[in-house]
Amino acid sequence: MEIERRKLLEIAEQQRAIAIAEQSRAQSEAQAQAEVARAKATAAEEKVFSAREIEIAERQKRIELVRAAQDAERDAIRIKVAAEAEKSAATDRADAQRTEAEGIADADKIRALVAKLSLRDRRRRNPPDERGAERALTCLARLQRPHAAH
User: What is the DSSP letter of 44?
Assistant: First the structure.
């Protein structure tokens, strides 16, 4: 009976060791599964953080692009307005120069006509000698020259 008892004791001891080993294995598996779950949760959390950071960066980029487009549009408007003002000023200057040239030409024509009429009038009163005619022609030529001394 002692053998039987020892045998039973040994079997009980083995069963207890098996139970402890199984419990230890189950605990290790649970810890491994918990570590995998924690790693997956950390990876998911990092993906969420990365997605958030990417969205913030893309939003900032869109804002900067809109601002750059607005700045470019403002610059283009400034350039266009300045070009239109310069074009208008150039047209005004050209008109003024044309008007001045026409005035000078008209004044020269009037002077020449007055000189011609004066000469004709003097000839009627005093017939010219050759020297007087020469002087009159020289005077008339001077008056008809552009920008003659006035």
Answer: H
Going from the first residue of the chain to its last (150 residues), give the mean pLDDT of each consecutive group of 10, the final group possibly shorter.
87 91 93 95 96 97 97 97 96 95 90 85 70 71 64
The reported pTM is 0.44
How far apart (Å, rounded) are the C-alpha atoms in residues 14 and 148? 138
19 is a domain residue: yes
Residue 136 structural domain: 2-144
d(CA 144, CA 105): 10
Nearest Cα neighbor of 122 from 138, 136, 143, 139 is 136
Cα 145 from Cα 98, distance rounded (Å): 19
The domain total for the chain is 1
| % pLDDT > 90, the chain | 61
